[in-house]
Design goal:
Number of helices: 6
Number of strands: 10
Shape: globular
Order of helices and strands: EEEHEHEHEEHHEHEE
Largest sheet: 5 strands, mixed
Strand order of the largest sheet: 3-2-1-4-5
CATH topology of the largest domain: Nucleotidyltransferase, domain 5
Distance between the termini: 49 Å
CATH architecture of the largest domain: 2-Layer Sandwich
């Protein structure tokens, strides 16, 4: 499996967050050794406002998506996470020097690909209308069964389209991309812990 891995690093070479200025190094394994094949300097310049930061995030994502299939950072959250996932990148969080975890990541990616190849197609559930404009869906089954269907496949097209007034989502854990998309679409977002294994998230269109 030939995979390029992009890693966000600070000046010492350890992983860092995209919210901190740094470099993205693209690694490829050549003849048993990891080599840096591309490099990109970045700075999201958050002090210049959200719109400017989004433009900088887009530059980072375009580079990473063009050069690699996997992205690694110390912490990958918020808008960068959402945009990287939307671009189809596999996202990992690690602390330390890339040489300490690259072999582990590639092994896990290979195992995941084998598992995906063996999964039988399953029906993708859809939100059900409980009242005019009000919808509900449970993600618990797909989160528990590891069927190969992702929460993004189930929910993102519906949330993106926005053909609802209110959407209630029951889940074991909140999908990392969901809050970022709610912010992007300017939806009201409310998270409620029902019990130790159940969370309810409500999305509402702002009037």
């Amino acid at each position: 499996m030939r995979v390029n891995i992009a890693v966000a690093v600070e000046p010492t070479g350890s992983t860092t967050s995209l919210y901190e200025p740094g470099r993205i190094l693209v690694y490829r394994k050549e003849q048993g050794n990891w080599q840096v094949v591309q490099e990109f300097h970045y700075d999201l310049e958050q002090d210049k406002g959200v719109r400017h930061m989004r433009q900088k995030v887009d530059e980072v994502v375009r580079f990473v998506a063009a050069e690699s299939q996997v992205f690694v950072g110390l912490s990958v959250i918020g808008i960068p996470y959402f945009e990287l996932e939307k671009a189809g990148l596999s996202i990992w969080e690690f602390e330390g020097q890339p040489e300490e975890f690259l072999d582990y990541i590639i092994a896990q990616e290979e195992e995941a690909q084998i598992a995906r190849d063996q999964i039988q197609p399953v029906a993708i559930p859809e939100p059900k209308e409980t009242a005019p404009g009000h919808y509900a869906i449970s993600l618990k089954e797909i989160q528990e069964n590891h069927s190969g269907v992702t929460t993004k496949q189930v929910l993102q097209p519906f949330v993106q389209k926005g053909a609802f007034s209110n959407l209630e989502i029951l889940c074991n854990h909140v999908p990392p991309w969901l809050e970022a998309m709610a912010m992007e679409k300017n939806y009201g977002y409310l998270k409620e812990q029902i019990n130790s294994k159940e969370i309810k998230v409500s999305l509402a269109k702002k009037k």
